[in-house]
């Protein structure tokens, strides 16, 4: 009965939407005026802005107050964080996806269209912030009046300055008893040279100062620098998949107008498309007839319309020579193998990954295989939290259960005589899987990815933080004074040393007061080796890893001890060895099961006992010579998982 009701609902929803579109096309074709039809707004009345901040500084709560002030939701609505629409966002209490809401607001008897983009605050989702601000002319830089400037605050301020965006510094949570706005204003002046009188103060929870902030957006942020008279051109800042309508895109219009039924084409494909769906996100879809330059709108060209983040949608008359793309490629920090928990679900998992990757443009997906785990995919992520959220979304949104291998970072190698080595093109190769490494004799140099880490910590923890970073092979950079109680420290750190447990350790040694953020610092020469695992002399390819020579003995002991706990005992003794270039750095032994062959004897000559023991010894010797150590699939999962 539940399935029947659900199918009836989807049927009605689909055909109601289709009927609405047919009516819109009829109105446009016959030039019929309609009061419900949206009027095209002037570009001088458009403001595009984002809310950027460190984690848990109140971005989504402030977005709720802005939605209430503009009449999108009723004050005191039961559902908070309206723009956090994913289940994983509500469970974890963080923003994962940047969400757009087009708001109407009347100021001084003029109606303005405000395109608000609520962005994530965690560094693992920084790509959402980067692509969102390409459609903005200003940002609200939100800072917690209690916590003060944090590491991610420095990062988003730098990003806004690089993109020449207008910054509206705003203090949130000023209603808290421990809030100290004057101290935080001093920090903003010290780090960013922001004058205290330009800083606004709000309480997103209670709604204090939100109206003044919204009016400041209108007064301070300029209208978009676009042209309505040119040919239509827009770039895509987000995509997602709809069951009935195919790929839907969120587009920022740079020039011209767009209407339903208009012929367009993609920059990456010369095939002509027809605009079938056009809507504003408020944040729910509101169908419109036409959109103009400066607006952020949802565009759909049907199930076969295509589209991807960073691509450009243009009119068929647009000159090809004028099309250019400023999208920078995403730098993936972590790679992991993704395999289906049940081999019969391989196709289902593949479709789920494809659809989710469309909505999460920061991931890269390539086919992969493993003798132990079967066919799968090698997926690139921006960090471990990004990896966890991606896996959780697969399960929640597509009911696809996945197994993830141990995460690894990408490395670069310089090959000797690359033309003589098959499957390798060029002198420098990016390695995302240790199995891709050629023979060490063919490698001239290894390069390891490094990051520039920013840590803001109370001054009493400077020694502990420095020790932690030096232990992780970090190199210190000049530090800056935030105020009399806090300092900003910077280190050049290997990416492999921070992706697993660095953040947790930092929080532990600083009693939770330090904040950490990092940015790419490129590849640098390093001394790396590939460590292999042998079971009774047989190489197990899935367990190979790339490690730095200074961490070799520690990594070898840790992995062999874990394997000893995970691999089940068998009828023969199993020797587990961690080997680098033929040298054994660690060994553990799993003893064989012992069968008491003399248990049935109850006396008699001792020669009978000796004969049975001799037969057993000969049998075990023969077994060792031909034995094939089989590791159960579940054991690989336990060893390889994070």
Automatic annotation (TrEMBL):
<keyword id="KW-0378">Hydrolase</keyword>
<dbReference type="InterPro" id="IPR035654">
    <property type="entry name" value="LepA_IV"/>
</dbReference>
<dbReference type="Pfam" id="PF22042">
    <property type="entry name" value="EF-G_D2"/>
</dbReference>
<keyword id="KW-0496">Mitochondrion</keyword>
<dbReference type="Pfam" id="PF00009">
    <property type="entry name" value="GTP_EFTU"/>
</dbReference>
<dbReference type="InterPro" id="IPR000640">
    <property type="entry name" value="EFG_V-like"/>
</dbReference>
<keyword id="KW-0648">Protein biosynthesis</keyword>
<dbReference type="GO" id="GO:0005525">
    <property type="term" value="F:GTP binding"/>
</dbReference>
<feature type="domain" description="Tr-type G">
    <location>
        <begin position="44"/>
        <end position="226"/>
    </location>
</feature>
<dbReference type="Pfam" id="PF00679">
    <property type="entry name" value="EFG_C"/>
</dbReference>
<dbReference type="GO" id="GO:0097177">
    <property type="term" value="F:mitochondrial ribosome binding"/>
</dbReference>
<feature type="binding site">
    <location>
        <begin position="53"/>
        <end position="60"/>
    </location>
    <ligand>
        <name>GTP</name>
    </ligand>
</feature>
<keyword id="KW-0472">Membrane</keyword>
<comment type="similarity">
    <text>Belongs to the GTP-binding elongation factor family. LepA subfamily.</text>
</comment>
<feature type="binding site">
    <location>
        <begin position="118"/>
        <end position="122"/>
    </location>
    <ligand>
        <name>GTP</name>
    </ligand>
</feature>
<comment type="similarity">
    <text>Belongs to the TRAFAC class translation factor GTPase superfamily. Classic translation factor GTPase family. LepA subfamily.</text>
</comment>
<dbReference type="GO" id="GO:0045727">
    <property type="term" value="P:positive regulation of translation"/>
</dbReference>
<keyword id="KW-0547">Nucleotide-binding</keyword>
<dbReference type="InterPro" id="IPR038363">
    <property type="entry name" value="LepA_C_sf"/>
</dbReference>
<dbReference type="Pfam" id="PF06421">
    <property type="entry name" value="LepA_C"/>
</dbReference>
<dbReference type="InterPro" id="IPR027417">
    <property type="entry name" value="P-loop_NTPase"/>
</dbReference>
<protein>
    <recommendedName>
        <fullName>Translation factor GUF1 homolog, mitochondrial</fullName>
        <ecNumber>3.6.5.n1</ecNumber>
    </recommendedName>
</protein>
<dbReference type="InterPro" id="IPR035647">
    <property type="entry name" value="EFG_III/V"/>
</dbReference>
<dbReference type="InterPro" id="IPR013842">
    <property type="entry name" value="LepA_CTD"/>
</dbReference>
<keyword id="KW-0342">GTP-binding</keyword>
<dbReference type="InterPro" id="IPR053905">
    <property type="entry name" value="EF-G-like_DII"/>
</dbReference>
<dbReference type="GO" id="GO:0005743">
    <property type="term" value="C:mitochondrial inner membrane"/>
</dbReference>
<dbReference type="GO" id="GO:0005759">
    <property type="term" value="C:mitochondrial matrix"/>
</dbReference>
<comment type="function">
    <text>Promotes mitochondrial protein synthesis. May act as a fidelity factor of the translation reaction, by catalyzing a one-codon backward translocation of tRNAs on improperly translocated ribosomes. Binds to mitochondrial ribosomes in a GTP-dependent manner.</text>
</comment>
<dbReference type="InterPro" id="IPR005225">
    <property type="entry name" value="Small_GTP-bd"/>
</dbReference>
<feature type="binding site">
    <location>
        <begin position="172"/>
        <end position="175"/>
    </location>
    <ligand>
        <name>GTP</name>
    </ligand>
</feature>
<dbReference type="InterPro" id="IPR009000">
    <property type="entry name" value="Transl_B-barrel_sf"/>
</dbReference>
<dbReference type="InterPro" id="IPR000795">
    <property type="entry name" value="T_Tr_GTP-bd_dom"/>
</dbReference>
<keyword id="KW-0999">Mitochondrion inner membrane</keyword>
<dbReference type="GO" id="GO:0003924">
    <property type="term" value="F:GTPase activity"/>
</dbReference>
<dbReference type="GO" id="GO:0006412">
    <property type="term" value="P:translation"/>
</dbReference>
<dbReference type="InterPro" id="IPR006297">
    <property type="entry name" value="EF-4"/>
</dbReference>
């Amino acid at each position: 009965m539940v399935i029947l009701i659900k199918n009836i609902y989807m049927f009605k929803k689909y055909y109601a939407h289709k009927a609405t579109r047919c009516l819109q096309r009829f109105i446009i074709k016959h030039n019929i005026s309609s009061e419900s039809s949206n009027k095209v707004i002037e570009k001088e009345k458009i403001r595009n802005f984002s809310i950027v901040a460190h984690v848990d500084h109140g971005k989504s709560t402030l977005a709720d107050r802005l939605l209430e002030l503009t009449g999108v939701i009723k004050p005191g609505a039961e559902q908070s964080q309206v723009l956090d629409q994913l289940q994983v966002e509500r469970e974890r209490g963080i923003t994962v996806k940047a969400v757009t809401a087009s708001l109407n607001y009347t100021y001084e008897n003029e109606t303005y269209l405000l395109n608000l983009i609520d962005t994530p605050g965690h560094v693992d989702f920084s790509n959402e912030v980067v692509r969102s601000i390409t459609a903005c002319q200003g940002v609200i830089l939100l800072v917690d009046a209690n916590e003060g400037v944090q590491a991610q605050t420095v990062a988003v301020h730098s990003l806004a300055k690089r993109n020449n965006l207008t910054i509206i510094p705003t203090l949130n949570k000023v209603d808290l008893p421990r809030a100290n706005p004057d101290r935080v204003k001093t920090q903003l002046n010290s780090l960013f040279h922001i004058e205290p009188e330009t800083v606004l103060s709000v309480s997103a929870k209670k709604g204090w100062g939100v109206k003044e902030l919204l009016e400041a957006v209108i007064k301070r942020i300029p209208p978009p620098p676009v042209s309505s008279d040119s040919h239509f051109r827009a770039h895509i800042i987000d995509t997602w998949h709809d069951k009935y309508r195919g790929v839907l895109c969120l587009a920022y219009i740079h020039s011209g107008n767009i209407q339903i039924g208009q012929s367009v084409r993609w920059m990456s494909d010369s095939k002509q498309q027809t605009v079938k769906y056009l809507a504003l996100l408020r944040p729910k879809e509101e169908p419109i007839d036409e959109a103009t330059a400066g607006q952020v709108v949802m565009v759909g060209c049907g199930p076969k319309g295509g589209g991807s983040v960073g691509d450009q949608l243009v009119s068929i008359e647009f000159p090809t020579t004028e099309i250019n793309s400023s999208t920078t490629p995403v730098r993936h920090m972590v790679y992991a193998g993704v395999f289906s928990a049940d081999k019969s679900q391989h196709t289902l998992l593949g479709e789920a990954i494809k659809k989710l990757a469309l909505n999460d443009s920061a991931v890269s997906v390539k086919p992969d295989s493993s003798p132990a785990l079967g066919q799968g995919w090698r997926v690139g992520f921006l960090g471990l939290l990004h990896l966890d959220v991606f896996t959780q979304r697969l399960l929640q949104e597509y009911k696809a259960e996945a197994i993830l291998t141990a995460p690894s970072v990408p490395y670069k190698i310089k090959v000797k005589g690359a033309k003589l080595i098959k499957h390798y093109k060029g002198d420098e190769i990016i390695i995302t899987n240790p199995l891709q490494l050629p023979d060490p004799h063919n490698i001239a140099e290894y390069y390891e990815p490094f990051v520039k880490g920013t840590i803001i910590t109370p001054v009493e923890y400077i020694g502990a933080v420095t020790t932690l970073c030096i232990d992780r092979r970090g190199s210190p950079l000049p530090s800056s004074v935030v105020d009399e109680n806090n300092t900003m420290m910077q280190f050049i750190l290997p990416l492999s040393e921070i992706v697993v447990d660095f953040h947790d350790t930092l929080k532990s040694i600083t009693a939770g007061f330090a904040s950490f953020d990092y940015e790419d610092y490129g590849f640098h020469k390093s001394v790396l080796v590939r460590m292999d695992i042998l079971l009774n002399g047989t190489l197990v390819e899935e367990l190979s890893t790339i490690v730095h020579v200074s961490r070799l003995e520690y990594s070898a002991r840790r992995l062999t001890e874990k394997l000893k706990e995970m691999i089940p005992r068998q009828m023969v003794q199993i020797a587990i060895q961690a080997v680098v270039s033929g040298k054994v750095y660690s060994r553990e032994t799993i003893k064989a099961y012992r069968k008491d062959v003399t248990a049935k004897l109850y006396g008699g000559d001792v020669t009978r006992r000796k004969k049975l023991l001799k037969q057993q010894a000969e049998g075990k010797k023969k077994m060792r010579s031909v034995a094939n150590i089989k590791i159960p699939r579940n054991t690989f999962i336990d060893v390889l998982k994070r």
